[in-house]
Structure formats: C-alpha cells, structure tokens
Design brief:
By secondary structure, the chain is an alpha/beta fold. Helix content is about 35%, strand content about 25%. Strand 5, helix 2 and strand 6 form a beta-alpha-beta unit.
Length: about 300
C-alpha cells in the first residue's frame, strides 16, 4: 500500500474520535463549511468564516477508503468535515495528510485520532517545535503529530488509485506536501496555491516557491485545488488562477533582483518594489512588505 522514503513513529493508540479534545481546542468557535464534488471521486471541503478567506481541505475517495488533505482550523471544523464526508461517502476516512504546520491547518488534526496521519519530516519537526513552545500536553501532541513522515515522496496504492504525496521544496513553509492523482490528472496543492489572493509569506520562501510551482506544472495535471480561495465551476479553470499567482512571484523576484543589482539595501528594496498591480488582491496590504523582505534575503543568501 505504501511506497517511498518513510519514517514511522510509534505513538499511543489512536484517540477515540468521539473523545473530547483539549479545552483550548473545544473553545474555538466553529466556522460554516460545505463539501463539494470537483470531479467524480474528488471533493473539497471548504470552511468559511467572516472576514477570512476560504480554507480548503481535499478529499479523495477510493474503493477502500478516503484520503483527506488538511484538517483545518479547529476540532469543530475537522468534525464538521468528517460529518459532511460521511453523509455522502460510504467509505471511512483512512488517511490524513497534513501540508503545513500552521495552527489554521493543524488544530483540526485532533478530529482524526482514529486514522493514520502523514506529513513531511520538516512538517513534523516544525509542528513539534510549535507544540513544545505552547507547552502542549502529551495527549495533544499525540493527537496532532503525524504517525508517518517522508522525505521526498510517498505513494499510496490504495483502493485502485495511485496517490502521490510529494515534497517539492520549501514554499509556503519548509515542509509543504501536495497530493497528485495521475489517473485523474488532479493535484491538491494546499497552501502552495492561494486562489485570487496575495500569498501569505510569513514563513515563505518565494524563490523556492516559484520553483515548486514550476514542478507542479510539470506533473501534467488538469485541475489544481487551492488551499485558499475559490474554485471555479469549471475546475479546469484553476490553471489560469495558478498562473496568475505564479506571476506574482515572478514579478516580485525580477523587481527585487533589479534592486539588488543596483546596490539597494533591503529597506530600499521594500520602498521601491510596490507590486501595485496586485494591490486589490486580498491580503496584499499585509503581505507585500513581508514578501519583498523575505525574497530579498533569499536572493542574497541571508534567509535561513
């Protein structure tokens, strides 16, 4: 069933999915959510809340069970997703793949205590660091951390489908995973793809992210499911949206390189590289400077 460079971690027995999560998780308000079929056998669960962009969780259905990508922002949302899945899909959830260690994509892991959890080795390292800093209990760590990690790729041969779990290098974080199903020509990109909004670069590596997007293009997929933002009625129209987001990185890289070539400091590059063609995109105001600073450091070899 599994093929690839994997590490398996022995943890406590899976937590009963009906058992309560830590109090901090239970106190988070639930957002509204909906499950939508993209193409036969492929769904997206979208969680929305006032003032926030859509958060998307991928759902792949096979004859033997379901694979979910990203548990989202809270136990309540995770349980809402599982209830929505079970209301239309008879097969049980068997795997949870997590792409980013950020809270808004991992708090929901506690709703998947009865399934095998998979993540990149950097994802596990960074999530463990975050949980340790937050003084999370052993129970909470077990509920959130992956049972299995991989380095470059891990392939599930499961229920008649080949599901590739891929690491394409540093991008939104240093441990992002994507899912690719070759026979259906669909890729689930999690936070590698911010649809119709300015990408979040708080821990991002824009130059490497651009290379990762080029690797995504080389997969040969027709449909690219974003981690944030809308999905067109015709899912094949996700390709132009992916191209538009990629162009943000191209424009930023080229402009910053020009500033570096003329001897600009980081602050001078921030002042000069406005990327005003994208100023109407959601999160531009909060992320433009972050993008320029991190890409400047990356291009000058100063980003860890």
């Amino acid at each position: 069933m599994l093929a690839g460079d994997v590490s398996v971690f022995s943890q406590d027995p899976p937590r009963n999915p009906a058992a309560p999560a830590p109090a901090a998780e239970r106190s988070r308000p639930a957002s509204s959510g909906s499950l939508k079929q993209i193409i036969p056998g492929h769904y997206v669960y979208t969680s929305t809340a006032p003032g926030r962009s859509a958060f998307n969780s991928g759902v792949i259905v096979t004859s033997e069970g379901v694979v979910v990508l990203d548990a989202l922002d809270s136990e309540a949302i995770g349980r809402g997703a599982r209830e929505a899945i079970s209301s239309v899909i008879k097969q049980p959830v068997r795997f949870l793949v997590s792409s980013t260690h950020h809270d808004n994509y991992t708090r929901g892991n506690v709703a998947y205590g009865d399934v095998l959890k998979i993540g990149h080795e950097n994802y596990r390292t960074d999530l463990l660091e975050l949980l340790t800093a937050a003084r999370a209990s052993a129970e909470e760590q077990t509920a959130k951390l992956p049972n299995q990690t991989f380095r470059d790729r891990l392939t599930l041969y499961f229920g008649g489908k080949e599901i590739q779990i891929l690491y394409l290098g540093r991008a939104h974080t240093r441990g992002d995973s994507i899912l690719f199903v070759p026979q259906d020509r669909i890729a689930y990109l999690s936070e590698l793809f911010f649809s119709e909004q300015f990408p979040n670069m708080a821990e991002g590596y824009g130059v490497s992210w651009l290379r990762a997007l080029d690797a995504v293009e080389a997969l040969g997929a027709d449909i690219f499911v974003p981690g944030h933002g809308p999905i067109p009625e015709d899912p094949r129209q996700t390709r132009p949206g992916l191209h538009r987001m990629r162009q943000i990185f191209v424009d930023a890289r080229d402009a910053i390189q020009n500033e570096i070539a003329r001897g600009a400091t980081e602050d001078q590059a921030v002042a000069a590289v406005k990327l005003q063609q994208y100023e109407k995109l959601p999160t531009y105001a909060g992320q433009r400077e972050i993008m320029v600073r991190r890409m400047y450091k990356e291009l000058t070899g100063k980003l860890p």
